[in-house]
Design brief:
There is one protein chain. An eight-stranded mixed β-sheet has the order 1-4-5-6-7-8-9-10. α9 links the parallel β7 and β8. The chain has about 375 residues and is an alpha/beta fold. It binds iron/sulfur cluster. The site of iron/sulfur cluster (SF4) has 11 residues, from loops.
Length: about 375
């Protein structure tokens, strides 16, 4: 039997094992220069009844997997049978539910780019229905835009929190107004602060995503300082960093081609990240959960771990030029995950060979090659 359950294109890395329920389609703004995700797609609200139908379908699939578990001698144990189903799922709907059950079936993520734009009573109705349908769910989260959060009344956000909304993920990107404007983010630093603070006040947990390298060569310093200022004002539970990648579907690609935007190098970006961390005074968890970040080990609870995080950047900066190149190439080809990997002689040698090839005998690998390797991950 085929099950139909609509799925959107993405979810945050921290929601990789969440049940995905599509609350809206695409992005109501869809203009950010650095983003290609929904370009060419029209934003649509989905009626609450349609979303509830998908939740029912997820429930039917879960019940079906439970039934298979009993029939195949797994005695209702979900992890084992979900693993079996995942090896050969009949369709994407089944795969979504099986992956969720495989990792304990605890969290749900509402797709796409800004579920908060739904009428508050309808979104609350969907969240309540989710809680009733899956009473064991621990966390329900979604993406939102700061501007939409700033427009909602505090009481509306409290209503969503009381309905069972646990967390919102917001793309803050930068706190520097000229950069927000240049990137056509459609929000100001003041709106970021207003929306973010309101979410924190409502009790909903908040993740703010920022983009390292977004200021390019020209605005990196202001980007770092102003982003830290905005984050200090909001004090989100999580600050999550990712590094700018540009593919030819993003409007920013043309800006690079015509010379209007000059990309920052890995070292520029680490200087920027150092300045950002130096200026952060809020009590937030700093998370580097994205493969594009050169030093993914820069993580910790602020302000407690600030010095350790800065020391990690200094450690990279103290490397010889050859070792810096070796590490950058090793990261970008997926051989290294942290600076300590430089001391793994086997991997180091393989990366040396790759570097030799990429640099055509020279020890320098040009920036374009490094960018291309990094973007290969996206
Ligand atoms: S608001 Fe988010 S999803 Fe929409 S265009 Fe901007 S970055 Fe992309």
């Amino acid at each position: 039997m085929a099950y139909s359950l609509e799925l959107g294109p993405i979810r945050p890395p921290s929601e990789a094992y969440s049940l995905l329920i599509r609350a809206t389609r695409n992005c109501p703004w869809n203009r950010c220069k650095f983003c290609h995700l929904y370009k060419g797609e029209r934003f649509q609200l989905r009626p609450a009844d349609e979303i509830k139908q998908d939740i029912q379908t997820a429930r039917l699939i879960r019940d079906k997997i439970t039934e298979i578990s009993w029939k195949s001698g797994y005695g209702g144990r979900m992890r084992e049978i979900a693993g079996v189903v995942l090896n050969n799922p009949p369709d994407e709907a089944f795969r979504n539910v099986a992956l969720w059950l495989y990792s304990a079936g605890e969290n749900v993520f509402l797709q796409d780019a800004n579920s908060l734009i739904m009428r508050t009573n309808e979104l609350a109705e969907v969240i309540r229905f989710l809680r009733e349908t899956f009473p064991d769910v621990k966390r329900i989260t979604s993406y939102a835009r700061s501007k939409t959060a700033a427009k909602k009344k505090l009481d509306e956000l409290i209503e969503l929190y009381q309905a069972g909304l646990s967390r919102l993920h917001i793309g803050l990107e930068s706190g520097h107004d000229p950069l927000l404007q240049y990137m056509d983010k459609g929000v100001t630093a003041a709106e970021h602060i207003a929306g973010g603070r309101k979410i924190v006040e409502s009790g909903i947990s908040l993740c703010e995503y920022i983009v390292l390298g977004l200021g390019g060569k020209e605005m990196w310093r202001e980007h770092a300082i102003q982003t830290a200022r905005v984050l200090n004002e909001i004090a989100p539970d999580f600050i999550r960093v990712r590094t700018l990648t540009i593919n030819n579907k993003t409007p920013l690609h043309a800006e690079v081609e015509n010379g209007n935007f000059i990309r920052a190098t890995d070292e520029d970006i680490l200087k920027e990240e150092r300045l950002l961390i130096e200026h952060l005074e809020c009590h937030s968890n700093y998370v580097s959960d994205h493969i594009t970040n050169l030093l993914q080990e820069i993580e910790g609870a602020l302000p407690r771990d600030k010095e350790t995080m800065l020391a990690c950047i200094d450690r990279f900066m103290a490397l010889s030029p050859e070792e810096k190149t070796n590490f950058r190439v090793g990261r970008r080809v997926g051989m290294y995950s942290s600076l300590d990997d430089l001391y793994d002689s086997r991997r180091h040698e393989v990366v040396e060979q790759v570097t030799h090839k990429l640099s055509q005998g020279n020890s320098e690998v040009d920036e374009k090659t490094i960018y291309a390797l990094m973007e290969g991950f996206i």
